[in-house]
Amino acid sequence: MTVRTRFAPSPTGYLHIGGVRTALFNWLLARRHGGQFILRIDDTDTERNVAAALQPILDGFRWLGIHWDEGPEVEGPYGPYFQSQKLERYRQAARQLVAAGHAYPDLSTKEQLDTARKAAEAAKKPYIHRGPERDLAPAEAERLLAERPLPVRLKVPLGRKLVLQDRIRGAVEWQTDLISDPVILRADGRALYNFATVVDDVDLQITHVVRAEEHLTNTSVQLLVYEGLGLPPPEFAHVPVVCEPQSRKKLSKRDMKKFVTAEVRAKLRAVGFSDAEIDAQDNLNPATVAYYQELGYLPTALVNYLGRLGWSLDDKTEVIPLDQMIANFGLDRVKDSPASFDPDKLYWLAGEYMRVLPPAEKAAGCVPYLVRAGRVAEPLSGETQALVGRVIAACGDRLKLFSDILTYGGFFFTPEVRYDEAAFTKRVRKEGIPALLRDVAGVLGATNPFDAPAVEQALQQYCTAKGVKAADLNHALRVSVSGVPIGPGLYDILAILGRAETLRRLELALAR
RNA sequence: GGCCCCAUCGUCUAGCGGUUAGGACACAGGCCUUUCAAGCCUGCAGCCGGGGUUCGAAUCCCCGUGGGGUCACCA
Q1: Cα torsion for A312, A342, A23, A63, to the nearest 10°?
Q2: Residue A249: which nucleotide is closest by CA–C1'?
């Protein structure tokens, strides 16, 4: 039997980190066993524009390289893949349950239900609804349903114990007497999640339902739907939820704005977002995939991080490239306790992946940030292309995210130097430094060739000869030509700028 | 509150009856060094508590405690 897994997002307008982790596990399981991964859209209850709200989700998965074998835009033999297109199918399945005596129309009014619920609450008892029509003969129930629109409820069998053999949690049990008869079809004919999801999983021939633990309780009802339909349930695996950083609380889809801290805002502004944009877009925060995409994280790093959150290969491996993850993934090594999301570790992994990325790919990833910041214009000239390559090489391991090109190498691409005042005061506005720089400008004017080794040699010779501390000179030079106290090696900086530009910037600094 | 799930360094995890409880991120210190990174070395830090079972428990059982999830004509 081929393994078929699925991920079923609601079109919310963003791809949530927690959701991706769940989707990734499904995808890995399918790939590991040569099966299929299906994307299905749970849009039964959405009023909003589904297409627009779905696009960011599809984009996110594509960016991550998590490709679906069936679903939106690729279709497949078991569609439709949108719940909104399966209304008639759900009605038909509900009728089947009614005819088999496993479901019934409920005449109770909302008021009656509310009253009963409140009474139960006041008595501190759980409210278990059993509609009076549940004992109607199937034919009678069908007649009632044909007469007028009524909600349909599942007839939960009495006095039974339900046992789920969860692939991650082991045996989980429920007493059916504690399960209220759930509505499976509204009076207007729309299906409810617990029912639609089962019908869909049946239609899509899903073999393994891997989903977040928050669905564990739902599984009892779903088990009963399978039973009523006369079908064997698939394998279930409930993975623990992903929690907020430094917390045990679920990384919630609600209230994601709270993750937009001052630090996060600064990072987004650094790549060109305005405060207005940050506030307006609900997908620009660290709980969504888009955030990492915008900051220039390598998608491979994010996938590695997420795959490693709640699953491990062994007792030591942290960097697990995708092919290795596919080859080794299994539900048996998925943890059964929640894990909190750790931005620091993700950042570290991003650096690990960036380090081994081929130069051409680094350049391709960095250029868009330079373009967006107005530092280079497209199409890039051959000269600019070469400059980008040299700057990236000089940045070396400092580059962890593509957007880091702005922090470490931005000054190469603009004639005006923006000075960090604190650094300028500390390194340049000092007794004797301006005179030193003027002197050194002469040395640099005579250095040939003007490449890193020659510049280094010339400056060191100068320092030795004049008894100048190399550090004092280098710091002053760095801040003078780049404006900032951090960045690539000084000799690389000077060589890349070239003699003329170096001397021009030196004059610029001395004129301040 | 009912039901269900969970519990090893701050965080991610290894461990599946006998280990000096291992690794990673973060943090601290050191080396290197023109800055910042990187790299290398060192350090800090953990089995929620209590009972059992056993020669022996982080590991098995029970009870607490704590955390989480879920209780809709949402998904």
Answers
A1: -110
A2: B68
